């Protein structure tokens, strides 16, 4: 293989004082929930909130003076963009980042804040890649690949080296896989010293590219995923070769498990993670029997999640757990009726989040109206108590939507 353990050791020396040696912490609560000894390697605590700055620095530091003077170009919708832009600025290298036109503005803004020129081109990453190659030829730039590069792989492998140097005797390390740079580097580092440790990759079921590549299947990835950081339709040639040889397995996870993992990490560990960073915990949630009783290290690869998406995930989690419910109440269409209902709900210790007052679109009498309310409650039992209390006071009501009481 092109990347060796010694390459990763050299990369680690190069990164001394450049990137954070991120914490490796045990989660007592997650260990109890998952019935395993669960540790978190918190790469979301890097300056750019992702492991990507490791490989980016190693790659940029390898360039000749002539290449540095001409500048570099990269394609990314997120973490790689920031990793390259940040480290290019530190090394005095002009950087151009091509991003899809629909990239969230916060990611564009963060990339520009590091001094890079951002070019918005293409509706999908493949179109952005074509635009980047055209600019590369036109300007004589060096292309910095997000994963299929020896220096990138060696830099990402320093995560695995840090885990080994902590001395924790793990049974399993679970790493998210997009293009495979992180998984390749970590597997190379760990298997060189501890071949007895299982290194398991995790992909979303919508983008199982490395799994398909290893099993020589047609690439089928596509769709909208919450884990856009690992939404790669085809792995790299170098990374596929390494993962095929060194990974013990790849597990696939559902979108719902990734959502739940994001919610659990922020509520339990008070740490913000993106979808890709939550994928290793999702693997524990989706495949509990696989890891029961084992000492497991989860690579929390990044924390760059859009704040609006994070809010949506947390609210959906509350609905899933029965802490946020919808209720439809039948009331007479007279002045004061809605105020009376609001008072009753307050008396029942529930909180009104939203109100939809409908008179025209339901099959109801002309002098009656239906009110749909979103309520915050303690749990599903409390939701039922609120409904019963309304009925006791003369107002018919029933729970709607995705609640266990329907």
TrEMBL record:
It comes from the Bacteria. One of its GO terms (biological process) is L-threonine catabolic process. Residues 18-302 form the Tryptophan synthase beta chain-like PALP domain. Residues 325-391 form the ACT domain. Its cofactor is pyridoxal 5'-phosphate. SUPFAM superfamilies: ACT-like (SSF55021), Tryptophan synthase beta subunit-like PLP-dependent enzymes (SSF53686). It catalyses: L-serine = pyruvate + NH4(+). Gene3D superfamilies: 3.30.70.260, 3.40.50.1100. One of its GO terms (molecular function) is L-serine ammonia-lyase activity. InterPro entries: ACT-like_dom_sf (IPR045865), ACT_dom (IPR002912), ACT_ThrD-II-like (IPR044561), Ser/Thr_Dehydratase (IPR050147), Thr_deHydtase_catblc (IPR005789), TrpB-like_PALP (IPR001926), TrpB-like_PALP_sf (IPR036052). Keywords: Lyase, Pyridoxal phosphate. Belongs to the serine/threonine dehydratase family. This is Threonine dehydratase. It comes from Thalassospira mesophila.
